[in-house]
Amino acid sequence: GLGIEKAYALSRLERFDEALELYLKENQDSVFINTEIAYIYSRQDRYDLEEPFIRRAYEGGRQDAWVLSEYAKVMSYEHHDYEKAISLLKEAATQTKKDAWISAEIAWNYKLLKKYPEALHYLDLTVSYGRDDAWVNFEYADIYDELDEFEKAYSYLLKAEQKGRHDLSLYSEKAFLLRCLERYAEALEVLKQVESMGRNDLWFYVERGYVYSALENYEKARDDYLKALEIEPDHPLVRSRLGWVYANLEQYPKALSY
After folding, report:
1. pLDDT at 99
2. What integer pLDDT is reported at residue 3 of this predicted model?
3. Which residue in 5, 15, 8, 72 sits closest to 35, CA to CA?
4. pLDDT value at position 255?
5. Whole-model pTM?
6. 235 to each of 206, 228, 242, 257, how far by Cα in Å?
7. DSSP the chain
8. What contacts 155, CB < 8 A, 6 or more positions away?
9. Quick check: 11 and 39 in contact, CB under 8 A?
10. At what angle do helices 2-12 and 31-43 cross, to 10 degrees?
11. How far apart are CA 53 and CA 29, in angstroms?
12. pLDDT tens, 198-234?
């Protein structure tokens, strides 16, 4: 009807709320209507609201690559059912040719399952399909970090930075990897950038305290560990590190208290 045609046009103009209002007045048994409502919620990243509509589209017989991919997103993002998401994505991949988005999503879900060889395989496929952007390189870095292959992780992280990623998570990871590589002075410089971007949580003070300790600046290490304890007073690692720092400052009674 005219209402459906108007809703379709509105959704393609990204006037999603107006389109949704019209679609929700239509027959909810229609695979097309369910697909269209799912599309709108997906574009709005409202996967919890998308779920019943994409499920009805799937169960109603529409099982093409788009529906399978959307259903996989819901399973992954909303239910953390990564195995189900991978199964749906692999089925979608059989209907497409060298789809970099699908292979990247499979890699991401395998990473969340801590199945790193499989994740790396699908990242390699993603690159072979023509996608080699900042996201892909950051994922490589994250996986090699988990595998304790810090040189490889750092190399991929630099590629992600060169390809345009300049957010807090990248610079936090960069500082961590430099510390793991025992490049402490460089790590400290990056941590200054991390601090300037607004990070002042437990991770930050523990990380910088560790770097100051490695640089034998025990006073500054002590100050950071004390700030970390203000955030989490009973943190066992921080208390242990603080005791070690006090020992290096030859403040033995305080060292024993931690």
Report:
1. 96
2. 86
3. 8
4. 82
5. 0.91
6. 10, 9, 11, 14
7. -HHHHHHHHHHHTT-HHHHHHHHTTS-TT-HHHHHHHHHHHHHTT-HHHHHHHHHHHHHTT--SHHHHHHHHHHHHHTT--HHHHHHHHHHHHTTSSS-HHHHHHHHHHHHHTT-HHHHHHHHHHHHHTT---HHHHHHHHHHHHHTT-HHHHHHHHHHHHHTT--SHHHHHHHHHHHHHTT-HHHHHHHHHHHHHTT--SHHHHHHHHHHHHHTT-HHHHHHHHHHHHHH-TT-HHHHHHHHHHHHHTT-HHHHHH-
8. 141
9. yes
10. 20
11. 10
12. 999 999 999 999 999 999 999 999 999 999 999 999 9
For the chain, give the longest Cα–Cα distance.
83
pLDDT of residue 254: 82
Token look-up 């066992």 returns: 236
Task: Look up tokens 């009674």; give the residue.
Answer: 253
Amino acid at 26: E
Q: Which residue has the tokens 């990871």?
A: 173
Tokens of 72: 């996989």
- Residue in the structure block whose two tokens are 């997906």: 42
Tokens of 242: 């603080």
Who contacts 26 (Cβ-Cβ below 8 Å, separation ≥6)? Answer: 1, 3, 4, 7, 33
pLDDT-flagged residues of the chain (< 50): none
